[in-house]
Amino acid sequence: MTTASQAHAFPRSDRSPLGVWWWTVDRWMLGVVGLLIFIGVLMSFAASPAAAARMNLGDPFHFAVRQCVFAAASTMILLSVSMLDVRNVRRAAFFIWLFAIAVMIALPFIGHNAKGATRWIQFGGFTFQPSEYMKPALIILVSWMFAEGQKGQGVPGVSIAFALYLVSVGLLVIQPDIGQTVLITVAFGAAFWMAGVPLSWVMLLGVLAAAGLSSTYFLFPHVASRVDRFLSPEKADTHQVDRAAEAIAAGGVFGRGPGEGVMKRHVPDLHTDFIYSVGAEEYGLIFSLLLISLFGFVVIRGLYRAMKLSDPFEQVAAAGLFVLVGQQAIINVAVNLNLIPTKGMTLPFISYGGSSMLAMGLTLGMALALTRRRPGAYTPTEGLAKAGAFA
Asked: What pLDDT does 324 receive?
């Protein structure tokens, strides 16, 4: 007779690194992330022919094939990183941040310029965007510094955290990349608040962030242009947003059917920033709500597990990483629904893009590593006695 333990990939008695990982990682979260990656590959096959035709590429599935490779690599990164212990997560974040910052410093000299921004390095057919990898590493490091500062052992944790943040933001503004700046500012503010600092400090940071964001309208012409198009669409070219809205409306409840979407032929960034509208047209409102629900599950479950962690660093770092993922998904969907000005922000695991896909695997790999069950990791009511919550 088969027991419940034998039905799993590994028996509970398996003390190998893989066996221990299997029984300590959040398998529900792992499954939902795997489903998102699968949906991303599926959507790439829907969007690739139209995107390839627009760019005069001979292979209609050029982007789909590459997305499959990126998805496989992202899965490997996610699984490998999720097996790390807490100390090695911090160590990895430190070296990743240093490497990403070094590349960002070099971007003005060796970077590839596109649409008025220098955010990428091209090599061997791959476009590398260092800021994508800097984001999760920064959240880990500032959470570590906040936790060290709370110990009262003379470590100026808050000052170091702000220095790391300012260096990162400064290099993003130089590119310029205002969207990523907003993303990490909100995640940094969330980590700052969760670290237990006085509310007055958080409010001050919020006021400064709002002032800084407002100033970008006057400092960066492309930001002013996007805001003006959003506020006065009748006076500007809103081709992409209009076509995306038409695609979503045309999908109705059940969609036109797989491969039957037509609006994707008229949206230049359909396989990246506007992949959500492609899915909405072909699979309808039900698919759209399912996709949003999957992201909601990842973020809500992740934040719930993070808040139950007993170590301040692990709690703040894990929550900050899930805030990053949630923010990015919200921004992308909001742009597709014309709720906010356009911004080149990918939909995690769904949009085409190597750097985005690999960095998102790194982000959730770190989050899964931090939320694994370990002796003393969770408060008594959420500890090993309730292991079934992760089953």
From this structure: 93
CA angle (231, 289, 78) in 5-degree steps? 100
The Cβ-side half-sphere exposure at 54, using a 13 Å CA radius, reads 15
Look at the chain and count its residues: 391
Q: Mean pLDDT for the chain?
A: 83
Residue given tokens 């770190």 in the structure block: 366
Structure tokens at 342: 């356009």
Among 351, 353, 354, residue whose Cα is nearest residue 278:
351
Q: Specify the pLDDT at position 176.
A: 83
Q: Which two tokens stand for residue 332?
A: 């992308």
CA distance 37 to 34: 5
d(CA 292, CA 266): 24
pTM for this prediction: 0.88
Report how far residue 247's alpha carbon sits from residue 224's, in angstroms, rounded to the nearest whole number.
26
pLDDT given for residue 175 in this prediction:
85
* 355 residue type, one letter: S
H or E element, residue 113: strand 112-114
Cα separation, 373 vs 391, in Å, equals: 11
The CA R_g of the chain, rounded to the nearest whole Å, is 21
3-state secondary structure at position 378: strand
CA distance 25 to 34: 14
What is the C-alpha to C-alpha distance for residues 391 and 383, in angstroms, rounded to an integer?
Answer: 13
Calculate the CA 84 to chain-centre distance: 20
- Burial grade of 391 (CB within 10 A; 0-12, 13-18, 19 or more): exposed
Residue type, 346: T
Going by their DSSP bridges, the two strands 112-114 and 117-123 should be labelled as antiparallel
What pLDDT score does 6 carry? 45
Which two structure tokens, joined as six digits, stand for 275? 């992949």
CA neighbor of 41 nearest in space, from 72, 82, 79: 72
Q: In this predicted structure, what is the pLDDT of residue 9?
A: 64
Which residues of the chain are modeled with pLDDT < 70?
1-10, 13-14, 115-116, 154, 222, 228, 230-239, 260-269, 380-391
CA distances from 149 to 93, 129, 142, 291 (A): 18, 31, 10, 39
Burial of 232 (0-12, 13-18, 19+ CB in 10 A): exposed
What pLDDT sits at residue 45?
Answer: 87
DSSP letter for 293, please.
Answer: H
